Amino acid sequence: MRKVHLLVAAVLLAGGNAAAAPAARAQGYSAERLVKSVDLDDLKAIVASLGHTVSEQGKFGEISLSATDAEETNYVLIGTACDANGVPGCQGVMMQVRFDPDESVDSESLARANLSQAAVNTWRDPANGTIGVTRYVVLDHGITMANLRENVNVLLSLTPSVVDALLEE
């Protein structure tokens, strides 16, 4: 009977150690891969899969990067809800296009822009006047890399119409 208890203890210890160690993360972009959290390599893989260029890392936190698309639009991907509730990595991704302050954009312009595109949020940082367009994705229970990538495309494709609404063009 003692051998059974030792075997059970060994199995429990092995399982406990396996659960405590972070799972090996697949690297690179795989459209079908289900992600419940992301790390910096995952964000880089999304950018690379779009043919965009990473221009900076870590400016908005450890799991963040700035990138540029073919039209020279700069955007940022920021991991949020990181290492929370026992889940390694970030369980959310904030995607943003940011613009320099513009005195002609008032509260009415921001409201108009927000009403023009429900899939994104348009805002102004009161501290420095930066204007931004944000799309936020929750990864709880998982989404595919293809879906995460498409959310970046949605942000980038809607931003020009948001700018038009901001400037009433």
Spans of at least 5 consecutive residues whose pLDDT stays below 50 are: 1-24
What is the CATH-assigned architecture? 2-Layer Sandwich
Shape: globular
Strand proportion, as a percent range, falls in 25-35%
**CATH fold-type name:** Yope Regulator, Chain: A
Number of domains: 1
Q: What summary fits the major beta sheet?
A: 6 strands, antiparallel
Determine the structural class based on helices, strands and strand pairing: alpha+beta
The averaged pLDDT comes out at 86
Task: Provide the helix percentage.
Answer: 25-40%
Number of strands: 8
Which CATH first-tier class would you pick? Alpha Beta
Q: Helical element count?
A: 4
Secondary-structure element order, as H and E? HEHEEEEHEEEH
Query: Span between N and C termini?
Result: 81 Å
Task: Lay out the secondary structure.
Elements: H1 2-20, E1 34-35, H2 40-49, E2 53-57, E3 64-68, E4 74-82, E5 90-99, H3 107-116, E6 121-124, E7 131-138, E8 143-144, H4 145-167
Antiparallel strand pairs: 1-8, 2-3, 3-4, 4-5, 5-7, 6-7
Helix pairs in contact: 3-4
Characterise this structure:
- This protein has four helices and eight strands.
- By secondary structure, it is α+β, with helices and mostly antiparallel strands.
- The chain has one domain: Yope Regulator, Chain: A.
- The strands form two sheets. The protein has a six-stranded antiparallel beta sheet.
- Helix 3 crosses helix 4.
- The radius of gyration is 21 Å and the shape is globular.
